[in-house]
Amino acid sequence: MSRLTRKSTKTAGSAPGTLIHVGEKKTDRVHLSMMHYAGAELIEQSLDGIETALPRLKPGATTWINIDGIHDVTLIEQIGRLFHIHPLTLEDILNTTMRPKDEAFDEYLFVVLKMVRYDATDCLITAEQISLILGENVLLSFQEAAGDVFEPVRERIRKGKGRIRTAGCDYLAYALLDAIVDHYYVILEKLGERLEALEESIDEDADAGMREEIHDIRRELIYLRKQVWPLREVVAHLLKGDNPFIGETTGMFLRDVYDHTIQAIDTIESFRDTLSSLQDLYLSTISNRMNEVMKVLTIIATIFIPISFIAGVYGMNFSHMPELGWRWGYLTVWLVIIAVVVAMLLFFKRKKWL
Amino acid sequence: MSRLTRKSTKTAGSAPGTLIHVGEKKTDRVHLSMMHYAGAELIEQSLDGIETALPRLKPGATTWINIDGIHDVTLIEQIGRLFHIHPLTLEDILNTTMRPKDEAFDEYLFVVLKMVRYDATDCLITAEQISLILGENVLLSFQEAAGDVFEPVRERIRKGKGRIRTAGCDYLAYALLDAIVDHYYVILEKLGERLEALEESIDEDADAGMREEIHDIRRELIYLRKQVWPLREVVAHLLKGDNPFIGETTGMFLRDVYDHTIQAIDTIESFRDTLSSLQDLYLSTISNRMNEVMKVLTIIATIFIPISFIAGVYGMNFSHMPELGWRWGYLTVWLVIIAVVVAMLLFFKRKKWL
Amino acid sequence: MSRLTRKSTKTAGSAPGTLIHVGEKKTDRVHLSMMHYAGAELIEQSLDGIETALPRLKPGATTWINIDGIHDVTLIEQIGRLFHIHPLTLEDILNTTMRPKDEAFDEYLFVVLKMVRYDATDCLITAEQISLILGENVLLSFQEAAGDVFEPVRERIRKGKGRIRTAGCDYLAYALLDAIVDHYYVILEKLGERLEALEESIDEDADAGMREEIHDIRRELIYLRKQVWPLREVVAHLLKGDNPFIGETTGMFLRDVYDHTIQAIDTIESFRDTLSSLQDLYLSTISNRMNEVMKVLTIIATIFIPISFIAGVYGMNFSHMPELGWRWGYLTVWLVIIAVVVAMLLFFKRKKWL
Amino acid sequence: MSRLTRKSTKTAGSAPGTLIHVGEKKTDRVHLSMMHYAGAELIEQSLDGIETALPRLKPGATTWINIDGIHDVTLIEQIGRLFHIHPLTLEDILNTTMRPKDEAFDEYLFVVLKMVRYDATDCLITAEQISLILGENVLLSFQEAAGDVFEPVRERIRKGKGRIRTAGCDYLAYALLDAIVDHYYVILEKLGERLEALEESIDEDADAGMREEIHDIRRELIYLRKQVWPLREVVAHLLKGDNPFIGETTGMFLRDVYDHTIQAIDTIESFRDTLSSLQDLYLSTISNRMNEVMKVLTIIATIFIPISFIAGVYGMNFSHMPELGWRWGYLTVWLVIIAVVVAMLLFFKRKKWL
Amino acid sequence: MSRLTRKSTKTAGSAPGTLIHVGEKKTDRVHLSMMHYAGAELIEQSLDGIETALPRLKPGATTWINIDGIHDVTLIEQIGRLFHIHPLTLEDILNTTMRPKDEAFDEYLFVVLKMVRYDATDCLITAEQISLILGENVLLSFQEAAGDVFEPVRERIRKGKGRIRTAGCDYLAYALLDAIVDHYYVILEKLGERLEALEESIDEDADAGMREEIHDIRRELIYLRKQVWPLREVVAHLLKGDNPFIGETTGMFLRDVYDHTIQAIDTIESFRDTLSSLQDLYLSTISNRMNEVMKVLTIIATIFIPISFIAGVYGMNFSHMPELGWRWGYLTVWLVIIAVVVAMLLFFKRKKWL
């Protein structure tokens, strides 16, 4: 399926709230894992079924259930039933083509995000949808496939570094959000490196590959921009929204995420500007080079075509060509030829072509 | 009539509220059909006249009357009389060149939409105007011609899938709106495919057809954009507006439609960006190719023009040309020629033209 | 005077409220006409002097006085005195370079508009300033010259079609506004036709006239845009403004005018986009054609220059040129020439130039 | 000093409120003049020192003191002391690089403006800073040098034309503002004339001077725009601001200045659009011309290179060239040459190059 | 590390509030200095440790502690403890990749700024992060390295010039802010000079270096813009924000800084416009020059190719070429050649190529 339009046509017209998985099936096995902690206490385990996690939930402790793989509609339905999730939310979780958004419900806060990856071999950015359900003392995270950018967060929970073990569920949600936004910078740095490589090589050698590299970077920026822009609204909304799921302390940290998001957008915009400047530089380099090619051709042709004509004239076989018989005829012709060449060179000199 | 400006001049200056059909007559026969349902009860039938539907209307049941073909002014007037529709609304229904909008009246909510189609043979998007009149327990939909994107909705009503049979008239209006917006994605996917086909082929072979394809896609995007942009305001307005015709539950579903509309706009904008990048790529490919052509010409001409001159010199017929009589004259000339060629090749090498 | 800047320098520095006619004198004779109606009653006549109309004014009846030609400062002053018009308003009426605006005074509402015309011979849009003074039961309209787009309105008054005879003075003002905005579509349709003609012909034959046509249409769009944009604010302001001169019923009709103005702006913007796409198409067509010309030159030159050199070599007159004496020398040369030509053709084939 | 950045580096880091003259010293002698009037009474005189004006100030009369030349820091300090002007205001008056702004203090209203001039010889727009201090019955105006656009205002005061003699100090300030904004139109008209001259000449003859003219006009527009844009905010602020220095009547006149400012901005923007369209037209004209040049070259070269080759072949000196001995050999060669030429011409005809 | 993306990946995923220095280590030794003053009293000294400054802090006096070098995490932590600074603030101070921002805490106001420098050798702008902590009677400033733009401020404190000695801590913060913003103008002036140098040289000689200069200036503008834009929000926020750390008097001075920031942004935008105009001028200069080159080539080739053909014809060695034997054959050929040349020259004259 194309990266440009991922909204599949197969849901068009189906009843809202109908649970259909939309998107590529990126993993075969659905994998559930749980981290449960409260101060010094920490339980980390894989889950066979979602119902085994339920007894853990209690006030004062934080339970993070991560689901890798969202194509198993039955499982999602079961989770929906157990955690009282609205059918529309379940539909959104299954639909991997959602625009980043946040929605506050009575019993939970629902956030859809895009986690971006950089595929080094193809130089392609890919986005994976992350859905977060933030309840009172439980956080559900849904991923399209295994593998994420949350490892440092898990590490912090395991080691009890910082305030994460004591700071509750909203802080955990913040930490995940922060990890995702931080990862945008990894991507931006990669693109920044490609931009700088381009900028350096364009001076020496503007070859054909360059114009494709310019187009490729631009395409990636367009793609990244589409993922990051809506995030600004989402974080701003979380900041302002008087929902009971985000405490005041976490709100202050969210302000930091907001700053980072704005800065990521700033960087994308200045990359676009830089790219557009490079495009102009590339085009004028091409034009310039063409000019140079043309000059060489013109100089050579303009010098030799007239003197070839002179040689041609005295190659004619007329019976009566008095010059041919002259003693110094041949020498004179050479002098004329040299005069023409010198005149031409002076002309080019004056035109600053040499 | 042109797709660019459809506001016909024939109404210019006519009295407002005058019922005149504006637009192409896309169908010959006007066709009326009704779906009437309330829970398990379902009546679906064609109507001979609009008055036969009236007795069906009652609280608790939903009646959807669909009119295919709006050129029959008398019929529209009759419907207006029977359902107490304002003359200005009737005028808007008849005028197929309306901008999408919504207007709340005391007795009904009036929404004008554009349903888009993709004509696969011409690769042209066409828009058909849909007018919805949402009353208390009746929904009137006016189409320019038979054939629409509502079949899945009808199917859901027939099979009683989801909440549609029980959810009232506003939910039905939402379902139609949703079907229309979903269909925008079908169009976008088609355009996305054309964009990607373009992107792939541009590397191999930037031929003349490509520049027309770029222009064609851009033209379609401009057209689609003009249809979709106003829709955002319409849906946002329906969401915010405190009109009594849209219940709170349906409002939540409308938020979904709003998200989809925003996403469609996002996609159109990134298509435009992509297209503009492709246009740049195409132009620099053309420039590059010209450069290559010029180089070949310059190399050939620059090598052969000087040595042709040498040959020309010794083709002259002067009586006194000492070189002609020399023993190794001919060989020397060949050596000179080879030297010139080698010098030229080295020059091109240094210029990186070879 | 130039169409680009019409604010004449002659008023610069004159006292505000000084009555000076600014603009071209488009008519010699000032012509006053009146339509007076109240239900079935209708009087339509030319006026010799403005004072003859005064006795007609009475509550319940609508009097429309139209003045064609505004260069007669004395007359404007007299009208100002009789109808208690503020000197600044009079100055604005006389100044044909005003930006569209509306101003509410205690005794009247003042609206300045631009009525556009399409001059078919020059393909130029021209704008004429219309000033409306809407009092309690009188409407004054000032035009630069005779000839307007109000004929259908007059016809409706004469025939008593629609609600115009009974709907009061504000409705009449609306009707005039509507007639002006409707006429923008006539212009847009003309431009749309030129755009489509351009689009069709660009494929076949991108000649020099096309680039002027592109520029001309763009110039007209810039001009039209400058007239239409401010109108949006004016109509929006009339809609919102709590002035006593516009009744609620007429307000609803004004909403229609607002929709049309927005749609006109939309259309102008998409015309601009289309034009910009056509400009790109035109430029790449030119580039492409240049490429083709260059290819033909390069193919011919690259094939014949080397073989001409060969012929040149054997045209030399050295005494000792062994090949010249060979039995199959001439034939061999021909074979070499054919080999070169075939090699070149294969080279071009591989380059896809043939 | 450059017109692009006039903020001098010499103030960087100096204490705020420090009085330093920043800018070019445009005049040697500082000149003070006063106009004092109240109804029929009028005193106009040059002042030797600012203190001589003080006794004139009284309620009911208006005193306008104009200072030409602001490099005399001591004088400015003295004025500041006498009229209770804030040190920051004095600093702003001395700094000729201010952005247009207005600031309300307790005892006066401070407005900074840019008066533009058009230097006809260089075709350059220059801006001079005007600072106005509007007190209760005194107006101070500071100019960089003698010579301004206020002469018509002075004339109106002298002749007592209009309401100026009786309308108080705020009206005088308005009159000066109006004179400055009116003068923008003089500049715009000059630029408009250059644009139209450009537009006309581009069709006939797109020479090198044209591209510099395009750049020059654009540079002037950028400069003018930078002066005019901030003015909009200033006037809008004066209109809204509840400061006691501007009476209600003058407010109404200011609305007129606001309209003019908006219109000036509109005109600048449409000039930019027009210029950009002309730039495109110029570029495609250049491209087109290049195309034509190339065609001529290609036609000539493509016709003569092949037939020159034929002539070259029969110029070879092989002993065994049977054609050379044929009776009709020469004639045949001519026929072949003619055939080639005709074939080529037909080819060009088909390509529509002829 | 690249100047384009400075947000280091090494913090990605680390716990918020974790103190890690992010950025280049620009200095080896951390240097602390203090200025303490209150009216006539002034103590200026280097500090060995931050704790030695603490006893100085007292109401009525202002203590400015400047820290050059922020890579010493232990020191920053100690300062944080001593001055009750929030961990998130400390993290921001250590992270040199912050976007300019201001945050009000209960005990202090935190402002992050970018101080720009112009490296004359590389013509590169570099930014250094300045963090200000404004407490009740203490101001902490953190710099990445020694060397700043605050020397004039220090000089004013030392000499007691202006109001700085008596005006409190907020005024000092304002003075630093003002010094930073003033320094933007130094940079802008440098760029302005480069722009003008470019503009002058483009007329004479559009060489390859120019297109790199255009790109370089644009890159610097993009970089500078990214630093200055967020500053506007920061200053606007400081102006509006009801925080207790900025007194009303200082607020008035801040308005001045705000004006300067806006003006800097204005200047950057008009530089961008100017640059874009120069880019267009450069491109059309290149195009024009190519055109001229082509014309010379075409004129020479078009004149000589046909006459060379004529010479070639009479160089053929046919036995029966009657012209060769004619008495005036040679002369006739010369006349034909001259006729062809004259005809060509007239053709070029008519085409305005000569």
From TrEMBL, chains A, B, C, D, E:
<feature type="transmembrane region" description="Helical">
    <location>
        <begin position="328"/>
        <end position="348"/>
    </location>
</feature>
<dbReference type="GO" id="GO:0015095">
    <property type="term" value="F:magnesium ion transmembrane transporter activity"/>
</dbReference>
<keyword id="KW-0406">Ion transport</keyword>
<dbReference type="GO" id="GO:0050897">
    <property type="term" value="F:cobalt ion binding"/>
</dbReference>
<keyword id="KW-1133">Transmembrane helix</keyword>
<dbReference type="InterPro" id="IPR045861">
    <property type="entry name" value="CorA_cytoplasmic_dom"/>
</dbReference>
<keyword id="KW-0812">Transmembrane</keyword>
<keyword id="KW-1003">Cell membrane</keyword>
<dbReference type="GO" id="GO:0000287">
    <property type="term" value="F:magnesium ion binding"/>
</dbReference>
<dbReference type="GO" id="GO:0015087">
    <property type="term" value="F:cobalt ion transmembrane transporter activity"/>
</dbReference>
<dbReference type="GO" id="GO:0005886">
    <property type="term" value="C:plasma membrane"/>
</dbReference>
<comment type="function">
    <text>Mediates influx of magnesium ions.</text>
</comment>
<keyword id="KW-0472">Membrane</keyword>
<dbReference type="Pfam" id="PF01544">
    <property type="entry name" value="CorA"/>
</dbReference>
<dbReference type="InterPro" id="IPR002523">
    <property type="entry name" value="MgTranspt_CorA/ZnTranspt_ZntB"/>
</dbReference>
<feature type="transmembrane region" description="Helical">
    <location>
        <begin position="296"/>
        <end position="316"/>
    </location>
</feature>
<protein>
    <recommendedName>
        <fullName>Magnesium transport protein CorA</fullName>
    </recommendedName>
</protein>
<dbReference type="InterPro" id="IPR045863">
    <property type="entry name" value="CorA_TM1_TM2"/>
</dbReference>
<dbReference type="InterPro" id="IPR004488">
    <property type="entry name" value="Mg/Co-transport_prot_CorA"/>
</dbReference>
<keyword id="KW-0460">Magnesium</keyword>
<keyword id="KW-0813">Transport</keyword>
<comment type="similarity">
    <text>Belongs to the CorA metal ion transporter (MIT) (TC 1.A.35) family.</text>
</comment>
